[in-house]
Amino acid sequence: MSQEFTIGVEEEYQIIDPQTRQLCGHAAQIIPIAKPMLRQSLVQPEVHCSQIEVATPVCRTLAEVRAALVRSRSSIMVAAAQDGKTIGSGGTHPFSNWHEQQITLKARYQWLAREYQQILRELVIFGCHVHVGIREREVAVKVINRARLWLSSLQVYQDTGELKDVVDFIVAQTTAEIG
How do residues 10-31 score in pLDDT, each as one tens digit? Predict the structure, then answer.
């Protein structure tokens, strides 16, 4: 059996103050602690200073993905604890105010903040991204054609108030990456 695709996973975590349970911007302090523990996985800042992202290496099996995720999750929790913080995982924080979240001082994120302004600042979300690399072009086209069936579901979200800005932002980002 030939290896038709590879898998990589990125997870974005909340950095939380264990006393107040609020988001806190300590990515810059936690990343240097986490890097030596994570070996092959990548740890980096995200848009907000209260976020941290960990990415698995490129994996060839689901067992590899699982092992990498278990290792990275454990390591990031240990690194945060060494900084006196804790890690949370969820779509968004239940009560931290987006007004209080600082944008990471990284050129790309600063540009995004200038370009998208309030939309980006309000977007205090924490995602899980699964990247699938498909070697054969014909198979990749079939997969994309199958995924297109879900675009109408996203359109529904686009037409509902606040989520409209989020979907517009995602579409703009995707278009920029493809184009």
Answer: 999 999 999 999 999 999 999 9
Tell me how far apart the alpha carbons of residues 163 and 179 are, in angstroms, rounded to a whole number: 24
**Is the separation of the CB atoms in 73 and 43 below 8 Å?**
no
Q: Are 165 and 124 members of one domain?
A: no
Residue 86: strand pairing partners = 16
CB 42 within 8 A of CB 14: no
Residues 9 and 42 both lie in one domain: yes
How many domains, in total, are found in the chain? 2
Structure tokens at 102: 């600082």
CA atoms of 165 and 151, how far apart (whole Å)? 16
Q: Render pLDDT for 117-141 as a digit per residue (tens, 0 to 9).
A: 998 899 898 988 888 888 888 888 8
* Dist. CA 91–CA 124, nearest whole Å: 9
